[in-house]
Amino acid sequence: MTGVGHLGYGPDMAQTSDVAVSEVRVTTTSGAVVVRSEPDLHAVISTGRSAAVDGSTVTIDARSSKAEVRVPEGTDLVIGTSSGRVEVRGRVGSVAVVTTSGKVSVEHAVSADIRTRSGKVDVDVVTGECRIIGGSGRVKVDRCGSAHVTTDSGRITLGGVHGIVHAHCTSGRIDVTMVTAGDVDAETVSGRIAIAMPVGTNVRVDTPPNATVAMSGEYDCVVTARSGSGRVSVK
Question: Is the pTM of this model over 0.85?
């Protein structure tokens, strides 16, 4: 893809051009961050915001305003904001988000590392590792490779998982749906845990006595599930 080299400015946008772009960094103290990838785009376009170039990295500082950025498909993103929602649309590379509050949503990424103190996290697809550290607010991932999710409170829902799972929360329900056999480590102080494995998977289960799964001979994966108060179900 092409992207950086010099900056061309119009009345309401800054655009990079001429050199390949590998990473875009967006920061704002408050206000939303909206990033959209486009398959036929060959530049980084920041509406109403200037962009600084350092090699193949573009940095956009929106200060205390909303940031709207268009990037080529597959671009890596690093996003930081104190408050306001973060929205990533289209197919991107790796995504790293640090925010204090506000909803975070990611449509399609190669990998994701999301850290927030409060606010919901919604992820459609992460083909590789999905790592989320949250405070309060639910976490929902529709499809991912491996998943590492930790929250203080709020429900954790992980669907279509292809790798290993670590899911831990202080209070809230944990739901995990595996599409391939993989190890699962799930723990909540209060709340139900429900884990679904593919049909025919031979699972070794290490859980309290109220979870029963037949196991004979060798096993495909290990499930460790613990809840201080709440039912544990492994199917």
Answer: yes
